[in-house]
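Deliverable D2.4 — example input (structure tokens):
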């Protein structure tokens, strides 16, 4: 009867996880800076006098509309980049797991 051999489990790579987290954090930081910049610029450019406003043309409504446009843009950007980021993470993890398993065998 052949002798059974148990190999150690392949552990996830902390380096790959950290690289993935850094890329995601960088994208979130870029989005944050963009939102703050554009909303501040939009608010400063559209500071109407309160007495001249129509009921549906308040600064809050204008700012909300600008925020919605920016949210749509960033949602599209995250949708586009999420598949690339997931593919990168999956490929890196698969390569490391294959390499670790081959070295154990």
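Example output (designed residues):
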């Amino acid at each position: 009867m052949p002798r059974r051999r148990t190999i150690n489990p392949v552990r996830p790579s902390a380096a790959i996880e950290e690289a993935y987290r850094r890329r995601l954090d960088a994208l979130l930081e870029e989005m944050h800076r963009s939102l703050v910049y554009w909303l501040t610029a939009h608010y400063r450019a559209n500071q109407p006098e309160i007495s001249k406003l129509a009921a549906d043309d308040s600064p809050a409504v204008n700012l909300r509309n600008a925020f919605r446009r920016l949210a749509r843009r960033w949602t599209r950007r995250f949708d586009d980049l999420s598949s690339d980021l997931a593919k990168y993470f999956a490929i890196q993890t698969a390569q490391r797991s294959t390499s670790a398993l081959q070295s154990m065998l």
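The chain has two helices and no strands.
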